[in-house]
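Project outcomes to date are best conveyed with an example. Our students and postdoctoral researchers have been running inverse folding experiments weekly, and each run begins with a structure described purely in tokens. The record below, which covers 205 residues, was selected by the lab manager from last quarter's runs and is presented without edits.
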């Protein structure tokens, strides 16, 4: 019995497994190296760089479009200025050419008038003088009519403020002539359908 109790009192031999300390059995947290911490990007840092790159790209595209539109504007403005100067020059030349054409037509009429004046200095036949002036008048009227000049039909027509200029009113000779032109003080003319001189008239009242 004594031997049995001596064995109970003796401490048990520790196994290799029991030799491991409890603190050592705990799992140690993985130590992150300084390099790994530096390599790992901060949250959102990549997105910020991407957004900044996209913004710079958009700015570059907008600047390119602005330069393109500016170039187009300058070209259009230059073309318009050239067109304006060219049309102004053509208009001046056209007016000058029209003036030359009218004067060229009037030269033969001036010659006829000069011949008539010289002939009238020694003329004794009044009818011949009248015929001479009538021929010059007819020639003048035919020349301008061929160029689109037209005399207004005014006498007896209804008063039209777009064609007539009323000098005064006068009693109408009959009831039907009220509001109509009863006398023409100065004839009106149209050139190719456009009024170039209003007829000065007296209107019946």
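After processing, the design step wrote out the following sequence:
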């Amino acid at each position: 019995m004594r031997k049995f109790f001596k064995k109970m009192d003796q401490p048990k031999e520790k196994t290799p497994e029991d030799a491991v300390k409890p603190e050592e059995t705990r799992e140690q947290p993985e130590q992150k190296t300084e390099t790994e911490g530096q390599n790992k990007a901060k949250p959102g840092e990549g997105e910020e760089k991407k957004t900044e790159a996209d913004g710079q790209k958009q700015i570059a595209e907008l600047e390119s479009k602005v330069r393109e539109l500016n170039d187009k504007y300058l070209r259009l403005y230059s073309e318009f200025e050239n067109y304006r100067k060219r049309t102004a020059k053509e208009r001046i030349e056209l007016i000058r050419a029209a003036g030359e054409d009218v004067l060229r037509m009037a030269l033969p009429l001036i010659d006829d008038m000069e011949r008539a004046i010289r002939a009238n200095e020694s003329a004794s036949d009044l009818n011949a003088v009248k015929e001479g002036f009538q021929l010059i008048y007819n020639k003048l009227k035919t020349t301008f009519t061929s160029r689109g000049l037209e005399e207004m039909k005014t006498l007896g027509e209804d008063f039209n403020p777009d064609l007539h200029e009323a000098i005064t009113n006068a009693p109408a000779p009959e009831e039907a002539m009220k509001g109509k032109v009863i006398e023409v003080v100065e004839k009106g003319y149209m050139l190719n359908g456009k009024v170039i001189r209003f007829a000065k008239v007296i209107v019946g009242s």
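The CA atoms of residues 69 and 75 lie 10 Å apart. Residues 150-205 form a domain with the Nucleotide Exchange Factor Grpe; Chain A, domain 2 fold (CATH 2.30.22.10). The training component of this project remains on track.
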